[in-house]
Specification:
This protein has helices spanning about 1-10, 30-45, 55-60, 60-75. It is mainly alpha-helical.
């Protein structure tokens, strides 16, 4: 989770990723952020976020993103 938080803070330092749970629903992260974020997640965690993983519920919070990453790691 620490690596993910570092990526998120570098992407958007002004956002409280520890407490925010509607990053997509409230428009805090936009499509450009998601493209950058998916690239960083793929590289850092050696996973492949696929099109079907690009659901708002997977990106609405840091916890949801980390759960998705763990699931993708388990699939490898």
């Amino acid at each position: 989770m620490e690596e993910l938080m570092k990526i998120l803070k570098e992407l958007r330092p002004e956002v409280d990723f520890e407490n925010e749970d509607k990053l997509i629903d409230n428009g805090i992260l936009d499509s450009f952020d998601l493209v950058a974020l998916v690239g960083e997640i793929n590289d850092t965690f050696d996973v492949e976020v696929e099109f079907e993983d690009m659901e708002p519920e997977n990106f609405n919070s840091a916890k949801a993103m980390y759960a998705m990453i763990q699931r993708l790691e388990d699939e490898v």
